Amino acid sequence: FIMVMRDLVTDQQRSHPMFHDLLEAAPDAMVIVDSDGRITLVNAQTDRMFGHPRDELVGSAVEVLLPERFRPGHLGRRAGFFADPMLRPMGRRLELWGLRRDGTEFPVDISLSPLRIEQTLYISASIRDVTDRRADEQRLRTAHQELERLARIDSLTGLVNHAETITRLEAALQDRQLPGSHHLGVLFCDADRFKAINDTWGHTIGDVVLATLAARIRGCVREGDTVGRVGGDEMLVLLPNVRSIDDVVGIAEKIRRHAAEPIRHLGHEIHATVSIGATLATPGESVSEMTARADTAMYRAKQSGRNGVTAV
Which H helix or E strand runs over 230? Predict the structure, then answer.
């Protein structure tokens, strides 16, 4: 093998046509580099991958195959490999990039092997274009992130779902235990007479009403606030960093007025309102304690005639 590689490096390809053909047919780019960092041998896939004519590459510094920003660091790594030559396989999850002759960059995997021919040490580099694999990995990551997002979202209203709302409330209550943190306000919103809306208009229109109310509530709060659907027609609003219960009630009244505006759908005008319980978190209380207090305030608003806000 050593004799074959020596002959190939010294351009005696005709002496070993079978080995030469195997090298040319290799699916990866094969580049052999001497101790000065000069390319001594490349195969056909190197020509195709990088776009350089072979006679242009042989004798050039191997760094010509790298984007310029990587070249200074590569000089030191190349010297380090020659000082401590050992097999370095692909798949080490490094971010490696190649540079084509036309200036475009592409991601690669590289394996390095020491190759000693007589008394001379060379590096044999196998280079694989992983553009398609990286694209597939990115698509999988995006799909996974979308699945994770959908797992936190209520499909009807687009609000965060019950589990995500409670998770955020737990985190907000923990923040409340830190010295100097602002108040956390909570609104418990419930659609008034929603069963009657479903009975009168049907569940399809009922879904439109819920989605519209959800959008209106979301449109009344600040960026960074949370609006979550926690039940059939129940929505919880988390208002971090409020100054007082008056701020919370002010936001609740804005929601109440906006929610009461007529909903026009397919030529119909539907009227819906919400009853809202408003409260502030107290230090050390649990999620269940806080939501129960806000729920109690909401029912007081219903008992007072609905379409109202009650604070506790």
Answer: none
Q: Which residue has the tokens 């108040």?
A: 183
Contacts of residue 29, Cβ cutoff 8 Å, sequence gap at least 6: 42, 43, 45, 46, 49, 50, 125, 126, 127, 128, 129
Confidence of residue 93 (pLDDT cuts 50, 70, 90): low
CATH number of 2-135: 3.30.450.20
Tell me which CATH homologous superfamily contains domain 152-311: Reverse transcriptase/Diguanylate cyclase domain (3.30.70.270)
Q: Provide the 8-state DSSP code for 103.
A: S
pLDDT digits (tens, 9 = 90+) for 195-243: 999 999 999 999 999 999 999 999 999 999 999 999 999 999 999 999 9
Domains of the chain by residue range: 2-135, 152-311
* Whether 201 contacts 250, CB under 8 Å: no
pLDDT score, position 25: 79
For residue 23, give the 3-state DSSP assignment. Answer: helix
How do the residues of the chain divide into helix, strand and coil, expressed in percent and rounded to 5?
Answer: 45, 25, 30
Which ranges in 84-202 belong to alpha helices (H)? 131-151, 162-176, 194-201
